[in-house]
Design a protein that fits this description.
Blueprint lengths: L1 H8 L10 H17 L4 H27 L1 H4 L2 H19 L3 H21 L3 H20 L1 H24 L5 H23 L4
Helix pairs in contact: 1-3, 2-3, 2-8, 2-9, 3-5, 3-6, 3-8, 6-7, 6-8, 7-8, 8-9
């Protein structure tokens, strides 16, 4: 039980545990979401939910490995469990658009909070409150919120991929500027391209 609690307190994404090919795929998906997310919004929501499930399951892998020792020793399970988590969340989130958008915004807020500020209860509580407020605003303004959410989700995935593939970059310094820059760029590009939709 002590190992379980210890791993629960250390839930951060360890980018070193992913192979380069996985980060290239995440980066490519992030770029597509960032630039054309609204045009492919059904597929985009599926992809966003998949990425949230995949990365979220990555957060939980130390706990799963502690609880199920045979999984920790099997490389196949180490690769398959995050994919299964991503697919399950994608299928659940894909069903209802408003809940999907609100959930994406809330989930992204919590993921970014955990990655940058850690998983202490105070940080996660503040991230949850901010996420709930942003999710409510997003549901009220579907089109602009979808554009911003897909841009930020794409920017987040692209940022994680770049930081993993270029280890010389300082994630501590560049994490937020990269996400905000990519999100802003994606929002501008999508707003211009989807002006008449």
């Amino acid at each position: 039980m002590d190992d379980f609690i210890k791993h629960a307190k250390e839930l951060t994404i360890d980018l070193d545990r992913y192979e380069d090919w996985q980060m290239w795929i995440i980066g490519g998906i992030g770029l597509a979401l960032m630039l054309v997310g609204y045009r492919i919004k059904k597929a985009a929501f599926f992809i966003i939910w998949f990425l949230l499930g995949y990365i979220g399951t990555g957060y939980l892998m130390p706990i799963i490995n502690t609880a199920m020792g045979e999984v920790a020793d099997n490389a196949l399970w180490q690769s398959l469990i995050p994919i299964i988590g991503g697919l399950l969340l994608a299928l659940m989130g894909f069903m209802i658009e408003k809940i999907c958008l609100g959930g994406v915004v809330f989930g992204l807020t919590l993921m970014m909070t955990a990655q940058y500020f850690g998983t202490e209860i105070q940080a996660m509580a503040i991230g949850g409150i901010v996420g709930a407020i942003l999710a409510g605003v997003a549901v009220m303004a579907m089109k602009p919120a979808t554009i911003v959410a897909t841009s930020v989700a794409g920017g987040y995935a692209l940022t994680l991929a770049i930081l993993a593939l270029v280890p010389d970059l300082s994630g501590e310094t560049l994490f937020w500027p990269m996400i905000l820059g990519f999100g802003a760029l994606g929002t501008i590009v999508q707003s211009i391209n989807c002006r008449h939709d």
